[in-house]
Amino acid sequence: MTSTLGTLPVVDMSLLDGDEADRAAFRDALREATHEVGFFYLVGHGIPRDVRDRLFHTAREFFALPDDAKFDVEMLKSPQFRGYTRFGGEYTQGAIDWREQIDLAAEYEPLGDDPAYLRLDGPNLWPSALPVLREVVTDWQQRCSTLGLRLMREWAECLGADRDVFDPAFAKRPSTLIKLVRYPGREESADRQGVGAHKDPGVLTLLLVEPGKGGLQVRYGDQWIDAPPVEDAFVVNIGEAMEFATDGYLKATMHRVESPKPGTERLSVPFFFNPALSATMPKIDLPPALAAEAAGVTEDPANPISGTFGDNILKARLRAHPDVAARHHPDLV
Which of 41, 265, 304, 305 is the most exposed place for a label (fewest CB within 10 A)? Predict the structure, then answer.
């Protein structure tokens, strides 16, 4: 790893529509970005601007609802950790995140509660005061799932594996999650934690940030890199499950969000593309040249990484929402 980095790398997905040389260039850029940094800007993804604008418009409509309408779908009511979280209702590394949000995930009939992570399957809490939210979020889920699977297949090829090596993990009941997030402005003298430093527990995150709004910072070596939104780009990062699958060749990276300035706000929509709760990510047999650069899976007794996605996400949910955990899952606390 080089000692300095001014900005995140940019990877152009439109290269996949070119000839074999273009497609190879895309895979090389994808592999290098996620080996070196774990984050990149994805352009050329093909999701139209009007679709993205509609998503942000609908998010603003949700956050503008009266408190009673938002509290009607509060996460405290959901054993599956779905729904609205008010300001100060989520924690990262034990500290309060200053944002409001609604979590909306793929909906499946529950399969029981053993193993415990199966409790996370179930329904969303959809606000009756904004019925269009379901249509817009479902459309976004489908678009980003298609994009996510395409990226997974390109990762497989650039790692020397069969193109479909990851497909079985996502074939049934993929655990996709969308968050609509609003960060309000805060005084410069206040604690600036919008969301604290963390790694994502899953496979792949596609983050859409409101144009012109900074705040995201990515850890690179001993520095924090600002990652403001780029025109027509997603910010993409991998999570701990991809680090596990590649024995640390691809890296899950710490990141955080600082609160915006007073009198402003910041909207973002992260989409988490993850396999079924019971799926175990395959261990990739890396080519020797890549295997020589695999650092191994991060070992942290306070944050053990499992190849089974359900173990990782349940661990994260219990930590982030202790009030929901205490109400619905006291045996796990």
Answer: 304
Half-sphere exposure of 237 (CA within 13 A, CB side): 26
Structure tokens at 198: 């963390």
Q: What share of the chain is helix, strand, coil (3-state, %, to 5)?
A: 35, 20, 45
Quick check: pTM over 0.85? yes
Taken in order 88, 89, 91, 95, the sign of the CA dihedral is positive
Q: Which residues contact 47 (CB under 8 A, 6 or more apart)?
A: 143, 144, 147
C-alpha dihedral sign at 232, 133, 319, 249 = negative
For residue 170, the Cα-to-chain-centroid distance in whole angstroms is 16
Give the mean model confidence (pLDDT) for residues 191-209: 92
**What pLDDT band is residue 302 in, cutting at 50, 70 and 90?**
confident
Average pLDDT over residues 217-221: 94
How many residues are present in the chain? 333
Helix (H) or strand (E) holding 198: strand 193-198
Q: Please say whether the beta carbons of 46 and 63 come within 8 A.
A: no
The rounded distance, in Å, linking the Cα atoms of 285 and 24 is 20
State how far the Cα of 98 lies from the Cα of 100, in Å rounded to an integer: 7
For residue 3, the model assigns a pLDDT of: 47
d(CA 287, CA 267): 41
Q: Is the pLDDT of residue 321 over 80?
A: yes
